[in-house]
Specification:
With about 200 residues, the protein is mainly α. The chain has helices at about 10-30, 35-40, 50-60, 65-75, 90-95, 100-110, 125-140, 145-155, 160-170, 180-200. About 65% of the residues lie in helices and about 0% in strands.
């Protein structure tokens, strides 16, 4: 379902969605040469998030697709398993395919979202959750979700564990290109946590 052309998304929300979507893409598969060139063209301001983006852009300029692919495989796939397990169930319970995944599937069904047929990863992986947030913000599958609904989804499925995952990605032994991805993710999630907290008090 396409977004209606007359839906107006505030610039700030569009930027939030873009960053969620970027994190979803960069964490779902290793970037190709075109993606690395796009990342290399990014620039950041003097905020912590902006500095992390600038660092990532510098690394993208120095990186080759095959190098980043090896790093991605070591971090997330490995032989048997990668250095990190980027799943809500694992971070929240210590096991894969547990209650957080079941709860997410219920919420996805309520929102009219389903896993793509060509995606075999459990829905509670970090890339999918980032993409779902982006879709909710811009209304990719219908109307944009109200801020209250975004906050409920975020607090249930992302806030309890994503900052820890991104911090682990920053510090992972195999992280080079993905270390600043971790910084971008952790810093952005911290901003979102505070923004949702403030909106809940309004």
């Amino acid at each position: 379902m396409n977004v209606a052309t007359d839906i107006q998304i505030p610039t700030e929300d569009r930027q939030r969605a873009d960053l969620y979507n970027f994190l979803g893409v960069i964490l779902s598969s290793p970037p190709d040469e075109m993606m690395l060139a796009q990342v290399a063209s990014l620039s950041g301001d003097y905020t912590d998030l902006g500095q992390a983006i600038a660092t990532l852009a510098k690394l993208a300029k120095l990186s080759k697709p095959e190098m980043v692919e090896r790093e991605f495989n070591n971090l997330f796939i490995g032989i048997g398993r990668g250095e990190l397990l980027p799943y809500a169930s694992y971070y929240m319970t210590g096991f894969l395919n547990e209650k957080p995944l079941a709860t997410l599937r219920l919420d996805m069904s309520r929102l009219g979202l389903t896993r793509s047929e060509n995606v075999f990863e459990p829905e509670d992986n970090i890339a999918s959750l980032m993409e779902i947030m982006a879709a909710m913000i811009v209304g990719r599958f219908g109307q944009p979700a109200p801020l209250s609904e975004q906050r409920t989804f975020f607090n249930a499925h992302i806030a309890p564990w994503a900052r820890v995952f991104f911090a682990d990605l920053e510090a992972a032994e195999g992280s080079v290109f993905y270390a600043p991805v971790g910084t971008v993710g952790r810093t952005f999630i911290e901003v979102e946590v505070e923004a949702f907290r403030m909106s809940g008090q309004a």
